[in-house]
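User: Please fill in residues for this 98-position structure.
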């Protein structure tokens, strides 16, 4: 790393600023932000977004699915924390009625 930036093998540069690494080019297979604690975020056009996979992968294993800037998942919970799961569709919380 030189001058707070490191070249990434798939093109572009990682910049270190405010406790995170940011990739300067948008490659959907690589996170655009990697925080110092290991949490990874995928963004598209400035909003959290990753089709079919979590857009946030926390360093502790928790995940959140986002699509076009909204929590969203139709085939399971959109938010999975250690002992809790939450369902969202297009950003709207879905109550479970069991």
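Assistant: Residues filled in for all 98 positions:
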């Amino acid at each position: 790393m030189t001058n707070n930036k490191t070249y990434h093998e798939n093109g572009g540069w990682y910049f270190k600023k405010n406790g995170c690494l940011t990739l300067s080019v948008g490659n959907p297979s690589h996170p655009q932000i990697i925080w110092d604690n290991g949490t990874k975020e995928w963004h598209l056009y400035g909003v959290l977004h990753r089709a079919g996979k979590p857009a946030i992968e926390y360093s502790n294993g928790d995940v959140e699915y986002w699509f076009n800037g909204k929590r969203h998942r139709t085939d399971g919970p959109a938010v999975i924390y250690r002992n809790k799961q939450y369902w969202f569709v297009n950003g709207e919380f879905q109550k479970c009625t069991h």
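For context: Residues 5-94 form one domain.
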